[in-house]
TrEMBL record:
Keywords: Glycosidase, Hydrolase, Signal. GO terms for biological process: glucan catabolic process. Residues 1-22 form the signal peptide. This is Glycoside hydrolase. Belongs to the glycosyl hydrolase 5 (cellulase A) family. It holds the Pfam family Cellulase. Residues 100-338 form the Glycoside hydrolase family domain. Residues 492-502 have a biased composition (Basic and acidic residues). The lineage of its organism: Eukaryota, Fungi, Dikarya, Basidiomycota, Agaricomycotina. GO terms for cellular component: cell surface; extracellular region. One of its GO terms (molecular function) is glucan endo-1,6-beta-glucosidase activity. The keyword S-adenosyl-L-methionine does not apply.
Amino acid sequence: MKPGVLFALPLLLLYHAYTTRATDRCDDSAEISPRSVSPFPPFDANYASILRYRRSFGVNLGSVFVSEKWMSPSIFPPNATSELDVASGWGSTSCASQILENHWATSITEQDLYNLRSIGINSVRIPIGYWTLCGAQPELCENTAFESVAAVYTNAWSYLVDLINLAAEYDIGVLVDLHGAPGSQNGQPHSGISDRHTGMFSDSASWDKTIDVLKFLAEQLCEVTNVVGIEVLNEPANDKQLWNFYTQAIDAMRSVSSCAQTLPLYIHDAFDLQRYAPFVAQRNDFVVLDHHSYFVFTAEESNESASNLTQKLLTVVQPTLANPSLRGNLVIDEWSCALTPRSLSYESDPQAARKTFCETQQAVYQNTSAGWSFWSLHLEQCHADWCFTAAVGRALPATFFPQKSYALDNGGGRSRRDEVEHRFAVIAARWKRDSGDPHQRSWNLGYSDGMETGGRFAAAGSQLGFVGQFMLEQIQMHGQDVTPGTEPDYQDGFREGLSDSQ
Ligand SMILES: *[C@@H]1O[C@H](CO)[C@@H](O)[C@H](O)[C@H]1NC(C)=O
Ligand SMILES: *[C@@H]1O[C@H](CO)[C@@H](O)[C@H](O)[C@H]1NC(C)=O
Ligand SMILES: *[C@@H]1O[C@H](CO)[C@@H](O)[C@H](O)[C@H]1NC(C)=O
Ligand SMILES: *[C@@H]1O[C@H](CO)[C@@H](O)[C@H](O)[C@H]1NC(C)=O
C-alpha cells in the first residue's frame, strides 16, 4: 500500500462513519410537515409587570436554537462550526430538520424547568437566531445566508413558543435574545455563520432586515405574560454605528403597538459599559444594559491567579458596575465559573478557590445589578465551570431565593398581610401629620408606594429589581402630586418603604 492510501484510509472510515451516522439518524426522503403553533395564554398585565420588574436569578438556555459546537457537538456534522453548517451539512434539509427538531424538542425538559423553579431560578434567557423565524415569517430569511436552508426551520418558531409556554407553567420569565442577526453582528460562529464576517452594520439590507426581525419579535411577544423582554442584539461588534442602530431598532420596536411602548428592551454593551451606559441614562423608557462578565478570554486574565481575579471582582468590577447613571437598569446576563487551568494552577486548593471566585461573582452581580443569568444550563460535556447543573450546590449555592422573602403567612405570629396593614397604619398616622411641606409630602408618598410595592413583590415570592425604573414611572404617574424638585425626596421615601416592607 502506498503511504497515501494509509493516510486516506482513516479519512475514508471517518467519512463512512459520518454518512452512516447521518442516515441512521434521519430519513432523507421524509417531508418536513408544518407543526401548529400553540397560542399563548391570555395576557395578564399585572402579573407581567411583576415578572418584568422583579429581580431575576437566571440561566441561559444556550445552544438550543443557536447551536454551538463546544456545547452540543453531537448535532454537528464533521468540520461544521456554526448553525449554518449544521443546517446545510446533514445532506438534505429534511435530514437537518429532523436532527434539529429533535434537538429543539428535547434539549430542555419540563423536569429542567421544575428543577430550576424549585431552587429559585426565576428567569431564562433564550438565544435565538433570525433563522428561528424562517417558518413563521419567511421573508425574514429571504436574501440571507439561511435562505437556502429556510425549510429546516419550518417549525423552529413553534418549538420556541412551546418552550416559552412551558416556562410560564413554572412562573419562569423569558428573555428572548437575538443572538444571530442577518449579516452577523459580530462575525462569531455563535451568530450562526462560519466565515467570520461581520456584515450587519455595513450592509444596509442586513441592517433593515434585522430591524424587521426585531419588530416581528416585539409584535409577537409583547403581550406574552412571561416574556420579560427582548434583547436587541447579543455581543455586537463595538461598531461606530451601534449606538445609531440601537436608537433605530428601539424606535421601530416601540412603534409596533401600544404594548411595545413599555416592553423592556435589553441592549448589550459591546463589552464597553462606559460607552453605552449613557445610552440608557439619557432615556426614560424601560431600556436595560446587559453586560457579560468572563475571566478566561484575555491573555492577561487567563494568566492571573483565581484569588487575584476574586480580588479584582471586588476592587475593579464591582465599582465599575455600580454606575449610578444607569438607575439600576443593568443585568449581567452571561457569566460562568470558568477559570483557566493556569489561573487555578496558582492555588493550593483549586476547588475552594473556584468556589470563592464563583460565589463572589454572584454576590457582586447581585449587589450591582437587577439580575443575572449564568451561561449555561446544559452542555453535553457538563462540568462545573460552564454548566449550571454541575455548578449548583458546588461552586454555586444550592438555592437562589431573594435574601429576604416571606411566605404570605409564615406560621408563627403576625401574617405577612397583617404586617403590611400594620405598616400602613403607621404611614396613615404620618400622613395626618403632613405639614404641607412638599418635600415631606413627596417623601410620604414615596414611602407608602415603596411599602406597597415591596409587599406586592414579596407576596409573589419576588423582590423588586428595577427599582430606579419603577420609581421613575411612579413619579411620572403621580404628576403634580410629586412637586417638581422633590423627586429625590420621593425616591428616599420609596427606598425606605421598600426596605421596611422586606
Ligand atoms: C474536513 O476538513 C478537512 C480540511 O479542510 C478536509 O481535509 C476533510 O476532508 C474534511 N472532512 C470532511 C468529512 O468533510
Ligand atoms: C502569560 O504567561 C506566560 C507564561 O509565563 C507568558 O509567556 C505570557 O507572556 C503571559 N501573557 C501575558 C499577557 O501576561
Ligand atoms: C497577584 O497579585 C499580586 C498583587 O498585585 C501580584 O504581585 C501577583 O503577581 C499576582 N499573581 C498572579 C499569579 O496573578
Ligand atoms: C454588597 O453590598 C453590601 C452593602 O453595600 C456590602 O455590605 C457587601 O459587602 C457587598 N458585597 C460584596 C460581595 O461586595
